[in-house]
# Entry
Amino acid sequence: MYAAIVTGASSGIGLSVSRMLCGLGYEVFGIGRDFGRDGKADEDGFKGRFHPIVCDLLDTPALLNVVKQISADYPVYVLVNNAGSAYYGLHEELNPQKIQQMVRTNLEVPMILTQQLLRVLKKNSGFIINIASVTAAGVNPHGCAYGATKAGLSSFAHSLFEEARKYGVKVAAIYPDMTKTNLYRNADFKEGDDEMSYLLPGEVAQAVRYVLSQREGLAVTDITLRPQLHRIQRKPPDSL
# Structure
């Protein structure tokens, strides 16, 4: 039975992607910090195929041990680099710790996981799917560092596809716009009230499914998802 590894799988997009992959029959190893009830329940479509792994992605030795154990026990076919960290505001108002957290979570971790699994994915003609952001392709005042990490992830995905395509590895980057998740918990804004102004995590999961559903020989390398409306709302000061 093929396995999939999903980072940031305890909530939001990662949890939805994990549910979708379980429904397709994968043994899904979801890496996150705190799964709570969702990570333990067999209902909600998991059907016993979801394996929550509590691990701090920034603890590199621990992460390497987790990946080594999974790949020793299962043939890994899909890697979804989904975990993300975001801080917004004027760049001068960030601090080194926040910048390091974004760079390591959004860019370093996907590079390390990909490096560790690439030989296995070549053997299995597997998939590497990076959840980037529409910010990767634009200018991002009040989000300079975050946008830069996602641009780096996009560049990495494009170059890796050219490097690994002859071995049968498919590499895709998905670029969601504002999605109704907790990514904006550290921001002074959130998605608008109108459901036409944001994406749902399950819609991003369906984009992942689309990448996986193509015939052998056809690779989908980029998918951009945008809500019809562009609207955000400011959070009340006492909610920050």
